[in-house]
Amino acid sequence: MVLKKQGTEEKLKSLTEKLKERMLQETVEEEDEAEEKTKKKIKEEAKDISDKEIEEISKKISKKDIEEEKKSIELKDETLIPLEDYIKCAVHLGTKVITPHMRKFVYKRRADGLAVINTIFIDQKLREAINYLKNFRPESIYLVCKREAGWPAVRKFEEITGIRAFTKKYSPGITTNLSLENFFEAELTMICDTWIDKNALYDTLRLKKPLMALCDTNNYTFGVTQVIPCNNKSGKSIGCILYILAREYCKHLGKPFTAKLEDFTGSLE
Question: Which of 23, 69, 100, 218 is positioned for an S-S bond with 95, CB 3.0–4.6 A?
Fold first, then answer.
């Protein structure tokens, strides 16, 4: 009788777990579909700028642009890197689209329609991200960046911090499916774009683990624990953000850090 009762309880527990998993899958799929429809509609209406155009604009930040941007920012505290370096790396440049999730980080639009992210907010959110990152060991973190512009910086980040990185492709399931040969466990996921790195995002949501993400003005932040608002289309900007994270994380670990900003961003001249 006891064994029968235990068997029934196990079956009910198994069914409950399956139901929870199915509900989560349906929720993820619904969010994915809604996000895709919304993004498509926004792009059609606003004619959002392409990644290539953002990359080209990011490369053409002039001394005049730097001075004008510095004048528009009220700087009270010292930033993690000189304000001028943030601007040189175009971390403040958004897209023409601003999602409701990212509106609070934007303070103006340029004449060409591009949103501009408040650099002070970027610095503040980076400090929060650094403090959060310190709670995890390198072997329990992984970083994903499908966007090619960010690959050099991501590889440098992996080399210096020891944090596992994925470029080109992250295969869904490698952190959730124990039967896969390349399965591994992680406690923190870092991604460079909630849209194109969504495989890693969804795996993390299924596991109910924390997620750190670089988010541009056209990104949604569903499920993101730590948002780093920034230009995530440009190699210079991604490199700048990862340089700061790597430097501060290595300080925490007591590891030597000799890299320069240009090692992550390429030439800033």
Answer: 218
